[in-house]
Amino acid sequence: MDKKNKISCSCGSCQLFLNDSLPKYSVMCACEDCRQALRWAEINGGKKPKDILYSVYFRSDIQSYNGIENMIATQLRGDASSTRIYCKKCFSCFAVDHVNYQNNVFMIQPDYCKQNFNVRIPPLAVLNLQDYPGEFAELDSDTIPVFHSRKYPQERKRFLSIEPISEYLTPPKTPAKGTTIREIISQIGKIRVLDLIKGDNLEELHNE
Ligand SMILES: [Zn+2]
Ligand SMILES: [Zn+2]
Predict the structure, then answer these.
(1) Which of 30, 81, 86, 104 is 20 to 30 A away from residue 182, measured at CA?
(2) How many angstroms is it from 71 CA to the middle of ligand 2?
(3) pLDDT tens readout for residues 63-95
(4) Which CATH number belongs to the domain containing residue 175 in this structure?
């Protein structure tokens, strides 16, 4: 029988087993960086990115993992705040770290990797709509808080006031029992900086 609480890439070469599989919160993200990162993966064999991405957060506490030799850690640019872990073989992105997550949580976009447990909870906010490529973003709810950007302190304050988000964007109160996502990133070794131009949707790379 398959071990529980598994997040894996689509080919199964990379696997993470969580100690705590309860989703902490989720958001819908329309930012150009998430899309560009998945677009880069698509060029390499991954799945086509949607314009708005369901993104869910788990404790950075991994009981065990397989396939570290098949994992690559990437950043979009030298000044990046996010580090994304992909499978070298199928280019699924199955874990994302960001400086603000403080190694308390990490994020996954479940449409771009596989899970054998429930990862769907109602999103608490729609983020970065200024980057949405279309005319009008169709949202599932008309009461969900929306954020055009999080550039202004008022927006960041409003975002952090949504329970329980701020609790998970501070250093963890209870240490991880297992391996943290940052420990896995450091075990992967060197982070590959992709040096992609901000906002470029990589059409040209595709044609080459
Ligand atoms: Zn894979
Ligand atoms: Zn994003």
Answers:
(1) 30
(2) 21
(3) 999 999 999 999 999 999 999 999 999 999 999
(4) 2.170.150.70
